[in-house]
Amino acid sequence: MKVEAVGTRRSIVGEGPHWDKRSSTLLFVDCHGREVVRYDPAYGAETQVISTEGDIGSVIPFAEDNRQLALCMENGLYRLDLDAMHKELLVEMLDTESPVKSRLNDGKCDALGRLWTGSAPSKLGQGPVRPKYNFWCYSKGQLKHKLHKVGVSNGLTWTNDNEVMFYADSLPRHVYAFHFDLADGNIRNRRVLVDFLKTPGYQGLGFPDGMTID
C-alpha cells in the first residue's frame, strides 16, 4: 500500500472522505473548519469549498441526485441543495444526556441507501468523555435508534455480502462486528472484533477511527 499526500490543505479536523463516482471527485469535510470540500484528481485541486455554518462530521451525496448532499452536523441530518445553496434540516438527532455539546460524526449508507451515523463530543478536551452518545439509522423520513451508551461514534462499513456490519467506538478502542440484516436494517449479536488495548498486533496503535473495506 502506498500513501501519499493529496493537495496542500491543512484542515483543522479532516474527516469523512467519500468518492462520488458520478463526478469522479472526492468529497470530505473539515469538522471544526465547518467546510465541505470537493477535490478533483483530474485537476489535482480543490474545485469547491462550501461553508456549513456549523460543525460537520460527514457528507454523502443522495443516490437520486448528487447535487443534493446529506450533511451529518451538530444537531442532526441536513440536506444541502448545491444549485440553490439551501440547507434544510431533515431530522434532529440530539444527545439529551451529554454533559457537553455534541455533534454527529462519521456516517455512511448501506446497500439499500439507509444512512447510519452516530454522535460524539463536539470537541475533545472538554472534560472526561463518557459513554452517553448514540448511533442511529435514517431512511425515508424515519429515524431509528440503534445503540446507546456510545463513547465516540466513528467509522463503519459492511462486508460485500451484507452479512456483517463493522463499527468503531473510539472511546473503548473497539471495532465491533454485528450480524446485519439488509432487508430490515437490524443489527444483532455484537462482538468485539478488535480491541486496540488487548488484541495482539493492534496494541499501541491508538484509537480506531474511520473505516472502509475492499
UniProtKB/TrEMBL annotation:
Its GO biological process annotations read:
L-ascorbic acid biosynthetic process
Give the matching InterPro entries.
6-blade_b-propeller_TolB-like, SGL, SMP-30
What positions does UniProt annotate as the active site of this protein? Answer: D209 (proton donor/acceptor)
Report residues binding substrate: R103, N105
Residues bound to a divalent metal cation: E15, N154, D209
Q: Which SUPFAM superfamilies does UniProt cross-reference here?
A: Calcium-dependent phosphotriesterase (SSF63829)
Q: Name one Pfam family in it.
A: SGL
Q: What is this protein called?
A: Putative ca2+-binding protein regucalcin/smp30
